[in-house]
Amino acid sequence: MTRIARLALAISALAAGSVAAAEPVALQCGRLFDARAGRMLDAHTVVVRNGLVERVEPGRVEVPGARAVDLSGHSCSPGWTDLHVHLGSQSSPESYSEGFRLDPVDYAFRSVGYARKTLMAGFTSVRDLGGEVSPHLRDAINEGLIVGPRIWAAGKSIATTGGHADPSNGVNDALSHLMGPPGPTEGVINSPEEARQAVRQRYKEGSDVIKITATGGVLSYARSADAPQFTQDEVAAVVATARDYGYKVAAHAHGEEGMRRAVAAGVDTIEHGTYMSDEVMALMKRNGTWYVPTIHAGRFVAEKAKIDGYFPEVVRPKAARVGALIQDTAARAYRNGVKIGFGTDMGVGPHGENAREFIYMVEAGIPAAVALQSATVHAAEVLGVDDQGVIEAGKRADIIAMPGNPVDDINAVLGVDFVMKDGTIHASPGG
After folding, report:
1. Per-residue pLDDT reduced to its tens digit, 163-178
2. What is the pLDDT of residues 97-135, one digit of tens each?
3. 172 CB burial (10 A radius; 0-12, 13-18, 19+)
4. Of residues 403, 400, 383, the one with CA closest to residue 391
5. At what angle do helices 326-335 and 295-304 cross, to 10 degrees?
6. Residue ranges with strand state E in 337-381
7. What b/e sequence results for 286-313 when a residue is b if at least 16 CB atoms lie within 10 Å of its CB, and e otherwise?
8. Which of 164, 352, 378, 425 would you call most buried, defined as having the most Cβ atoms within 10 angstroms of its Cβ?
9. What's the predicted TM-score (pTM) here?
């Protein structure tokens, strides 16, 4: 990203609406979700000081000297984590042409609003799995310049020539010759050696996680949605190099063979997983691989495929065919005991609607409490952190609340009206 784009994030300071929590703060919760146990508890008081949970006490407790926040009609939960977003973009019929018209600074400005919507929906952390804006957005949020969730940024996804995330797909011959073929610096590889170089380039650029596109994809300007696009040696080189730098690896994958290669090589998560077979599920269970279904994205693209002109014709049949299958795959994976983390692929669908994924998970037969765990304690495990995902003494004060009880009625997740991140209140009932 250019320095101009970096400046765009800096000058888009949207701190208005954030309230720095006085110390201490006592959140008087009508109910409290115990993410470790996967159950809703009765009334508890959560005391927050210096950005951390100081203590959690049963019942409604008056804390001398503390600012009391009355959440007695609400269910409090650890802030949610969406393990698969793209904050630098959002799907529309113009998405494919905008790449030729817009500059990085334009995407940077847009990402500011997308980040804020995501936080206000209750998502205090995200993994941004592919986008050059995201590392800079992460830094601007961490510096307090703008409001948004905590970001684990992949930067540019790693692809193969012509594969999903090859940035030159759909470019005409004249432009292709002018640009030249993309290589490892641009995240496109064709050998184990180039795979290692691409990971090192992501390290140089400040990524937090590595993302590969192990198979074709739905929205790329290419015919295949599911063909394997990395050799076994290439995936293994990515994973081995990532481990050298302490990185986890997320693998976009729709097709069975590409998934099998990725899981066998040791990736940490499979994203989408549309054509996941029982054999792949068994391998994932043996290797401890997590599955991030992104049902929302599947349903979104299947619906938009019905609209003439929303997608290019090379994309439309893939969206109709693949998108409709992901919810069923998630149901089978849960029944087979595959570990599931929460992710939406938001940026395909509208930012801020992330919580609808919970509803789709429950529709697939996943219990509401398990779905909520997938975005809290289990998401923290996927990220490899132990300071969030639960409301316990010493953990980050990432706490959200909503009227109703989402364990009894999952639709309550759409009503989040209290958001605290690192002890700072960004939204509260009544304003």
Report:
1. 777 776 666 666 666 6
2. 777 678 888 889 999 999 999 999 999 999 999 889 999
3. exposed
4. 400
5. 160
6. 339-340
7. eeebbbbbbbbbbbbbbebbeeeebbee
8. 164
9. 0.92
